[in-house]
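Bumping with the actual sequence this time:
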Amino acid sequence: MSKPKTERVLKDIEAQAVARMIRVSPQKLNLVAAMIRGKKVSRALADLTFSRKRIAGDVKKTLESAIANAENNHELDVDSLVVAEAFVGKALVMKRFHARARGRASRVEKPFSNLTIVVREVESV
């Protein structure tokens, strides 16, 4: 006896991809996520390809995964997809110590982030 299948959170015209434990601060990742929010996926991929931010490659990989999920799992048309949501959440923070002068130490925090990208199929006008 298994538990009942949970209902799908997203609508039928949406697909998502989640990247967890990305080694960058949420603030820096949100700058890149804001760059693609609301754009067509072809334009968003082009922006991420030519972005100078280090983390843009990981965001592009997650967006490509969301596009593949929409195409293969939900039979959505790739040409009419839009980045509906791109949001960032906190993950864990590694605490390290950095040696300072006169036998002291200062704290170094190395944050991790989670990224969720939701793509939605829109009817072309």
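The tokens above came from a reply further down the thread. The chain has one domain: 14-121.
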